[in-house]
Specification:
This protein is of the alpha/beta class and 315 residues long. It contains 14 helices and nine strands. A nine-stranded mixed beta sheet has the order 1-2-6-5-4-3-7-8-9, sandwiched between helices. The chain is globular and about 65 Å long.
Amino acid sequence: MNQNSMAIIALCSHLCKGNNVKPLEPAEWTKLADRMMDNGISPSDLFSYTSDDYKSKLGFTTDEIKRLDSLIERSGSIAFEIEKYANMGIKIMTRADIQYPRQLKRKLGRNCPPIFYYAGDPEITNKRCIGFTGSRNVSVTDEDFTAATVRKVNANSYSVVSGGAKGVDSTSCATSISSGNCCIEYISDSLINRIKPRAVVNAVINKQLLILSVVKPDSGFSAGVAMMRNKFIYAQSEGTVIVRSDFNKGGTWSGGVSNLKQQLSVTFCWNNTEYKGNVELIKRGAIPIDETWDGDVINHKAKQEVLLEQFSLFD
């Protein structure tokens, strides 16, 4: 691990966090990173900075200097914590690492999280991907549609991205892996627990599964992180398939609406009239698909723009 990455981990991670230590939030790190870049300063330089350096080169106040000093001082303890997780098969990447997902950097820019904890081969993020999102509570019909659609996108040389939850997420991931392809999971739950099942371990070892999380590996489920990870799924993907959505509530709905505005990837939605959320997302510009969809994305980008323009005219 390079020293720039180690500095980012010391400043932003919640590893070895004492009562008086407040790690930088992603927005705070972005602001600091911009300030350092403007002054030609690397994160690793902070390891040797004095109070005078902070004041003269970065314009920090006494309280800001005290906070950064307390964070940097954790470096030794954090190194042991990193080694502990590495022995479990969990590593850490930062925005200073070459293996950091390029699609996220390209599409999210300064809004990329500074840190990801991960298990698996980061090279998987360089593959072309299609995202799958939907309800945790699914019917057999939902599962069948998900699996059939995954096999189609796999046939078009796309891997799968999901959120690692039950239902649509797990079905899409398992189908892609069983077809001999890959899956990326951006999870909002414990990474340690996620890598316990033997099937998951085997998929990671076989370089078919990469699991990433922005929170400590022993952290439990977080609704806030679940909402945040939606943008990672969309940003990682060339297109994203919404299998089942509630109307005007839930992470699938909010993620779909947000992506239709931001256009991180082309938004596809199962044209199932029994699901009001699906119907409404299609009205807002999502491309309707059914069992006849060929699983290709490239030829649908222009269609998405037309649908979104039509929606904006009547919104």
